[in-house]
Structures are given as C-alpha cells and as structure tokens.
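Standup notes
- DV: blocked on the single-chain target, sequence here:
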Amino acid sequence: MNTTEMFLIAMAIILAVPYLVWRVGRTDYWAPLVVVQIVTGIVLGPGVLGKAFPDYYTTVFAPPVIGALNGIAWWAVMVFVWLAGIELDLHEVWRRRRECGTTAGLALAGPLIAGCLVAVGMLAWRDGWMGPAAEPWQFVLGIGMSCAVTALPILILLLEKLDILREPLGMRVLRYASLDDVAIWGVLAIILLDWKRVGHQAAFLAGFAVAAWLFRRLMSRLKETDRWYVGLVWLAVCAYGADWSGLHYMVGAFLAGAVMDRDWFTLENVDKLRHNVLLVLMPVFFLSTGLRTNWSVGGATVFVAAAVLLVASVGGKLAGVGVAGKLLGWAKGDAWTIGWLLQTKALIMIIFVNILLDRQVITSETFTALLLMAVASTMLTVPIVKPRLKQLV
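- DV (later): unblocked, structure below
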C-alpha cells in the first residue's frame, strides 16, 4: 500500500471506531462523543494497540502517515483554541467584575494550590515526572495549572447537553470560565518564557498589540463572510509569530481569537463551525494525543498519580467555588453545581499538557497521568450535575 492508502485507512479507523463505541454503547450520558474520541485515541496509541498488534500498528501508523495526521491535528487545535478566544465575553465579565473576579479567582486558586502540592509530592516520590528542559518551579506551576483548567469549549457542549447554555445559570458559569481561560494562557506564557529569546517574545507582543489594533479596525468594516476568511489568515499569522518567539503557536491562536469580538459573528455560525471542527478535524488531534501516551513507568504508578491529581483538581475546584458562594451569598446548592461544571477539563487541559510535553516541561508518563485525569473529570460532570438540575426545577 502507498502512503495515501494507509492514510485513508487510518482516517477510517479514527472516525469509525469512536462513533461506533459511542452509538452502539449508548455512552452519551456518562461519556459524550468527544470523551470517547479521546479514550479511543489513547487505545489506538502505542501503549495499547502498539503493544497488542505491533506489526499492524507500525504499518497503518507509519511515520509518513503520522506526519500527515500531525499537520491536520495542528490546524484543528489552532482553530479550536481560536474559537475559544472568540467565545470570550469580557464585556459582560467586566460589568459583573466583583462577582466574576471573586468566583473565577477562587475557582482557579483552589485547584492550583492543591495541584502544586501534588506536584511537589511527585518530585519527592520518584524521578521521571519532570521533563529534562524544566525547572522545578515550571513543573510545579504547570501541574497546578493543569488541575485548575476549565475547558471552555467543552463546557459549552455540556451546557448545551444539559439545556442550560442560554439560561441564567449557564451564562454565569461561562463568565467565570472565561476569566479562568484568560488566566490559563497567561500562566502558560510565563511557564514558556525563554530568557534566551525574551527579545523575540517582547517583539512579538509589541508587534501583536499594533497589529491587533489595525486588525480590529479592518474587521469592523467587513461583512461577516469576509471576516471569517480574514480571521483565519490572522490566526495563521499570530500562531506563526508566537511560535517564532518561543511562546508556542497555541498562545498565538488564543490571542488571535481573544482580540476578536464575538458580536462580529452570528452566534449560530460560531456554534456550527465549532461543531464542524469537532466532527471533521479534532478526532485526528485526539489520535495524535493518544500517540503520546506512555506506560513505561508502570501502569499502576501512572493510575495512582492520575487518581491523586483528580482528587486535587475536583476537590480544589469545589472548595474554591464553595468559598466564593459563601462570600457572595449564593443560593443553597449553587456552589456545588457550578463547581462541578467548572472542573470539566477535557480538551483545553489536553492542549495545555501537550504544550508542556512539547516544551519538555513534563515527561510522557506525567502527560499520560494528566490525560487520564482530564478524561475522568469530564466523564463525571454530566452524571453528577444532571440529577442536581432536576431538583432545582
């Protein structure tokens, strides 16, 4: 078989297997399709399929095929993060800044502190968790922030599933998650700060500020159909500039979306594009994520680390939101529901830890533990929140 044929076989597997598991297994309540796709990516990776059928794995997922799939995955995740930036509604956040700042700050601080403590424990426990290019503070902060992440795009999908996306509760949760989303990328930029290339990074940020001002003036004069095309060009340029400066192309992708107004686009079109990216492109990213999983440190050790990280992540988020609820005088039960919704990890955390792995801040063993934690946290959300919402009706 030639490379094209192997690529098409790989694409058929990537698209068909998770869909069949999701549809035939009727997993939607506890594992939405996006979660099944992530798990399938892990199963199709070298740690499971590669060990069970090494010859088949090396044939279908040969280096030329992996190279082609990686190109699709890079663009898919850049578009997805760009859309997450567009989804930010910072105007409404500013209008309710006391409530949003208090809640978002505590919702971030709780799991961040808990995750950092776990990271310190991991360093004391054994070698092999921290990447070769990392300083201890970068590893600790990276793990802490991984526990604090709220996945804004996946949160939107879950709120749609729960029929509260446009309800007052859903809009509140999105405002809190929006602020945390900004903080996540800001912390990532600090972790990735390269003193050898700080001049490049300063030049990129200065150039970006000027270009963003010109870009916004241009976009305000265009029709919506033209804005989509120009926006995608803007995405590619910003991603290139950020990667050139050493900040990583994902930081550039988020900044490209964050400076764009959601009001420039019809909300229905934004939702359609996000769903289409999830349908057509993101399964390839899930596979490329699965290819990075590694169990060489020992499966039991990785699972123990994932479990401890899950407890720190969920417990820290619920504690932080609980304190915010008491300070702001929320109705009984609101903090529990909001805390569980905000602890959803899924894609944004997976993107975040992919970047940490790329920059050798963490090892593939740590990446695998964090990936398992992200999947588990997302699978817990709907089964725990849905019964609670029925009680509130």
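- Follow-up: The first helix runs from residue 3 to 25.
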